[in-house]
Design a protein that fits this description.
The protein is of the alpha/beta class. The protein has two domains: 2-226, P-loop containing nucleotide triphosphate hydrolases (Rossmann fold); 238-279, no CATH class. 39% of the residues lie in helices and 20% in strands. It has ten helices and ten strands. The strands form two sheets. A six-stranded mixed β-sheet has the order 6-7-8-3-9-10. A four-stranded antiparallel β-sheet has the order 2-1-4-5, covered by helices on one side. A hairpin with a 2-residue loop joins strand 9 (205-210) and strand 10 (213-218). The protein is globular.
């Protein structure tokens, strides 16, 4: 479990606080979406979860280990993988397999174990046929899949994704999200920072940050059901929920806690059928 208590962080001593007293818990196997307007502290917050940043005040615990402990951090980082917004910032190898092998290689694992992990990780993201290619000639979507494979090769219990689809076209975005959903189903904790509400509509929990604090927290239904509050915070809602909300504003008695096209069609069809019976 990841536990955050009264987290405060400022980059410069005496400077502005970027994170202002966040407390929360993320249990094993959860899919948590982190949203909020630009500049609210999302990236700064999640970089504390694997020890990339150390709190100015407060505490962060990962699986019982304190991130302020330099010895513990060496154990925390392989457990908490980080996928950044720009995959070019994570790629270091001359070939795809060399890049994926970089992490487990730093763990001083036997070569046969490293090779096994590389094969397994590339297979999980569907990039095993690209293993001999240079990552620098791949598309952005393929690069991001290689970055995820590199994280998977470390055998993490938790994965943080900091806006991983920002530079991707729709097709590549779907490939990455498919992999993320698969990893969650396999029991890996997912912490997903995004500006696209549709990406985390089916998350277990949503955390909304605003000016360095938690402004809202709950299930997608609980959070996205407060449309006006989210608008005040400068945060959107999933497109399906937005459409249903607009229909409700016209007087139609439809639910607004639905986030899939299939469920929305059923809801509208049911409403039409009931109105026809009434008339």
């Amino acid at each position: 479990m990841i536990k955050v208590k009264d987290l405060i962080f400022q980059y410069d001593k005496g400077g502005e606080q970027i994170v202002k007293g966040i407390s929360t818990e993320i249990r094993d196997g959860m899919h948590v979406g982190i949203i909020g307007p630009t500049g609210c502290g999302k990236t700064t917050f999640v970089r504390h979860l694997n020890g990339l940043l150390t709190p100015t005040a407060g505490e962060v615990w990962v699986d019982g280990m304190h991130t302020a402990d330099p010895v513990a951090v060496l154990k925390i980082r392989p457990r908490v993988g980080m996928v950044f917004q720009n995959p070019d910032n994570q790629i270091v190898g001359m070939t795809v397999e060399e890049d994926v092998a970089f992490g487990p290689g730093n763990l001083a694992l036997p070569p046969i174990e490293i090779a096994r992990r590389v094969q397994e990780s590339l297979a999980m993201v569907g990039m095993e046929k690209q293993s001999k290619r240079s990552p620098h000639i791949l598309s952005n979507g393929e690069k991001q899949l290689v970055a995820i494979a590199g994280v998977l090769a470390m055998k993490p219990r938790h994965i943080i994704l900091d806006e991983p689809t920002t530079y991707l076209d729709p097709s590549a975005r779907e490939r990455v999200l498919h992999v993320v959903n698969r990893l969650h189903k396999e029991g890996i904790t997912i912490v997903h920072v995004t500006h696209d509400m549709n990406e985390i509509a089916r998350a277990d929990r949503i955390i909304v940050l605003y000016e360095g604090r938690i402004a809202m927290e709950g299930t997608p239904s609980q959070v996205f059901g407060h449309v006006e509050r989210l608008q005040d915070l400068g945060v959107g809602i999933p497109k399906i929920a937005e459409i249903l909300w607009s229909l409700r504003e016209t007087g139609l008695d439809v639910r607004t806690d639905i986030f899939s096209v299939e469920e929305a069609c059923k809801e509208i069809s049911s409403l039409i059928t009931s109105q026809q019976k009434f008339h």
